[in-house]
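Sequence design from tokenized structure. All designs in this work follow the same two-part layout: the structure record, then the generated sequence. An example of the structure record is given first.
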């Protein structure tokens, strides 16, 4: 029997991984304790995401906290060497929250990852392991690049070697503020790499920029494209925070991220680290995304502006995905920014905001 284990299975990345891998595996085992609601309140609830994955015929859910080492171990022990793939997407993604409760943040992101890695090592060490990491591990290091301000965005000096394709994996990790979230995610990222490099496990680390899709419970703290559309559809002002709304992110549809993880799973390279994002073609500032959404839908987006930026929130990030594409030439993103925005618009226009507890 072939089993895939997906942590964070009710969330954006995990939910998409369940749907994508269900037809290819006999069983998909999900781990999620619904903790996103604790981080972000009822608007962050993943109850809808959980209900959706529960409808997948060969899905089995475990309401397990990744901080609970014994419980995580028990799930992996149950399926043992039948487990061929693990996508670790459970996590605490909020930077302000991480500053308020750094111990909990570290326990979820860093210790939780180590718990999953260790259980995989002991019970199904041959499985492919995808660690969903983040460009936030670099904190504000990208702000040391020579940036210029244009009418609608921060932009890298066109003479800089990163201008055309974005920042590659050689960017420094030290001498940066990164919020406690960046610390816990970096610890997880390094622990995952070590299981690949030292122990030879089939671990791949994917450092993502801004991932989105209808499965995202976008809130002001996390999921800016989702929350922008959600706010616009509800007629609530969207909170733009700092940098004149000109901060740039490389948006990637979650289906394209999971497609990349699938490519890796077919021919894993132990201990590799990849930037995974939408590239320059899908990079947008907040102001530009608002204008694009208004153009696509004819709606007018109201927003509130707070000038003080979030701590260690860089003005510009585009990840260079060429390393991944060299290793996996079959992959390229299939969904452009308009697809992403229209999918979010359809989702939030149809969504009933009242959700049952997860
Ligand atoms: N969405 C993005 O833009 C983005 C970008 C870069 C990296 N990431 C990383 O990818 C991962 C997944 O992100 P996402 O956007 O799917 O987030 P998400 O919040 O939609 O999903 C995470 C899921 O993990 C679950 N969870 C949280 N704590 C848990 C715990 N202690 N035990 C079990 N389950 C728990 C949550 O309930 C949620 O369903 C995160 O680690 C995040 O840091 C996301």
């Amino acid at each position: 029997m072939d089993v895939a284990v997906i942590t964070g299975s009710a969330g954006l990345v995990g939910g998409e991984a369940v749907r994508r891998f269900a037809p290819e595996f006999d069983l998909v085992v999900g781990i999620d304790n619904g903790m996103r609601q604790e981080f972000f309140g009822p608007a962050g609830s993943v109850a809808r995401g959980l209900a959706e994955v529960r409808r997948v015929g060969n899905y089995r859910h475990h309401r397990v906290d990744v901080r609970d080492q014994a419980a995580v171990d028990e799930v992996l022990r149950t399926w043992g060497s039948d487990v061929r793939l693990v996508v670790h997407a459970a996590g605490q993604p909020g930077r302000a929250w991480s500053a308020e409760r750094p111990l909990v943040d570290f326990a979820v992101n860093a210790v939780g990852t180590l718990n999953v890695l260790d259980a995989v090592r002991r019970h199904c060490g041959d499985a492919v392991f995808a660690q969903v990491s983040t460009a936030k591990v670099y904190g504000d290091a990208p702000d040391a690049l020579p940036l210029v301000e244009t009418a609608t965005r921060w932009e890298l000096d066109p003479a800089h070697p990163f201008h055309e394709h974005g920042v590659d994996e050689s960017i420094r990790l030290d001498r940066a503020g990164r919020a406690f979230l960046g610390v816990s995610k970096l610890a997880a990222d390094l622990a995952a790499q070590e299981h690949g490099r030292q122990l030879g496990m089939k671990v791949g680390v994917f450092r993502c920029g801004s991932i989105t899709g209808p499965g995202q419970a976008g809130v002001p703290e996390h999921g800016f494209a989702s929350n922008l559309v959600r706010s616009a559809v509800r007629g609530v002002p969207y909170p733009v925070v700092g940098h004149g709304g000109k901060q740039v992110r490389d948006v990637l549809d979650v289906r394209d991220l999971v497609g990349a993880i699938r490519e890796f799973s077919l021919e894993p390279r132990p201990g590799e680290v990849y930037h995974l994002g939408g590239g320059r073609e899908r990079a947008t500032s907040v102001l530009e995304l608002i204008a694009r959404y208004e153009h696509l839908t004819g709606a007018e987006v109201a927003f509130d502006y707070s000038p003080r930026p979030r701590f260690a929130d860089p003005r510009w990030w585009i990840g260079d995905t060429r390393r991944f594409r060299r290793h996996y030439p079959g992959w390229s993103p299939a969904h452009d920014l308009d697809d992403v925005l229209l999918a979010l618009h359809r989702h939030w226009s149809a969504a009933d905001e009242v959700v049952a507890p997860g």
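DSSP finds twelve helices and 14 strands in the chain. We note this feature because it recurs in several other targets discussed in the main text.
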